[in-house]
Amino acid sequence: MNYMKYKRFFVLMEEAETERSRGEKRPGGHVKIETGNRKGAMSCTVQNLKSPSEKPCQYKLIFFGKRREKTIYALAGNLAVNREGNGETHFRFDPNNFDGKGNALDRFSLIVVAAVSEEREGTMRPVLTGILEWEEQDRPPAEQEKDRPEGDTVLVSGGKEVLEEANAVSDKVNYNRFYNQCLLRFCRHTCNVSGYYKNVSPFSFDETGAEWKRMANVGNLPLVSPGAHYFASQYRHYLFGVQRDEHNNAERYFFAVPGRNLPAEQPDGGESGFVLWQSIHESGDEDADGVGTAAEPGAYGYWILAVNAASGDIEAP
Prior knowledge:
Strand content: 35-45%
Oligomer: single chain
Number of helices: 4
Strand order of the largest sheet: 5-4-7-8-1-2-3-6
Distance between the termini: 26 Å
Number of strands: 15
Largest sheet: 8 strands, antiparallel
Radius of gyration: 21 Å
Order of helices and strands: EEEEEEEEHHHEEHEEEEE
Mean pLDDT: 79
Structural class: mainly beta
């Protein structure tokens, strides 16, 4: 598929299970996907996901597809859902490498919102499902017949098998939660003692809408990112940001590392989550260190990643 041209897709998400009382509100939602200029963005909106009787859980947005008769999957990320079971979450992605394993977006056709119990023995349970349909001309000619199951909607007949494989994946012991909780503890502690750090407004235009603090102790940067530690040490600081909701609760945390708008200065080539670059204020601002003005290649600014305040997952800002 040509991801240079702008395209937009809407996928209606419907309830995967129907065993609910007649008077209860049905869960639902939709996914909007946009691609163009070899970049991708999506938003997922959900309603009525959680009933009062359910145990605490996280919701994940997962894509499934087929490649040479093998089921493949891509975890888009966690969904931020409030107590009423409603939420809207945004993601950015590379449409040519959607799952990080070289599989493009057009190989995926089944979208699942799954509930994952926060208890260790919990399994993944599909809550919403939707079909992302592709026209034949959107797929490479050599793969239209070889990789595509019968029909226009991939995995409709094999949906049960795919979801069983999703459960099998979730049964494997995963220790990421420990590291996520360590990261969240740092972020929450920094918020609690934020009065000790300097407020800054470094950006000429801030896409994140965050409140920013300048952190001089680069040794405390709590990220597994050699590139971020290197550039923070070179510039002798990094920034910590918080994005809050209407109730003043943290929704996302941000880490920003100084660097020019050059691939060579993007921490870890973006693999550790630093995928958003923002230009600093014009020369003369005390937080700009007196350098750089425009958001052109070589200009000075910050590379930014985001941390989900509910799960601790690192995600695209």
